[in-house]
Amino acid sequence: MGERTVTRADLAEAVYQRVGLSRTESSELVEMVLSEISDCLEEGETVKLSSFGSFVVRDKGERVGRNPKTGEEVPIEPRRVLVFKPSAVLKQRINESLVNGQNGDATER
């Protein structure tokens, strides 16, 4: 499997090459999209991206955990967590690439 990490700069470069905006405009567009997604999630909204997946904010209540070393019970504070649920389309694409022998290289996109 590929161990490459896709960065904001990589996304901006892809927009630049495929859409034809300037590099500055491409970078600004990527930043605006990521900022809008972040703002919606911060408000507790679900973000659904068709054929990609959904980002869902879940509230976890207070619970009792256990220190694995000592066995001591420790309270875990309530918190919000972000969960990503891939769409069926994305799951299918990932599994097809595995079957077809693709390793996820950027050159194969």
Tell me about this structure.
GO terms for molecular function: DNA binding; structural constituent of chromatin. This protein is one of the two subunits of integration host factor, a specific DNA-binding protein that functions in genetic recombination as well as in transcriptional and translational control. With 109 residues, the protein is an alpha+beta fold. It has a domain of 43 residues: HU Protein, Chain A, CATH 4.10.520.10. The protein has 3 helices and 5 strands; from the N terminus they run H-H-E-E-E-E-E-H. Strand 3 and strand 4 form a beta hairpin. It is extended. It starts with 7 loop residues before the first helix and ends in a 10-residue tail after the last helix. 2% of the residues are buried. The mean pLDDT is 90.
- Classify the oligomer: single chain
Poorly predicted parts:
none
Q: What kind of sheet is the major sheet?
A: 3 strands, antiparallel
Question: Count of DSSP helices?
Answer: 3
SS content category: alpha+beta
CATH homology group of the domain at 1-43: IHF-like DNA-binding proteins
Shape: extended
CATH structural architecture of the domain at 1-43? Irregular
Keywords: DNA recombination, DNA-binding, Transcription, Transcription regulation, Translation regulation
GO molecular function, one term: structural constituent of chromatin
Pfam family, one: Bac_DNA_binding
Subunit structure: Heterodimer of an alpha and a beta chain.
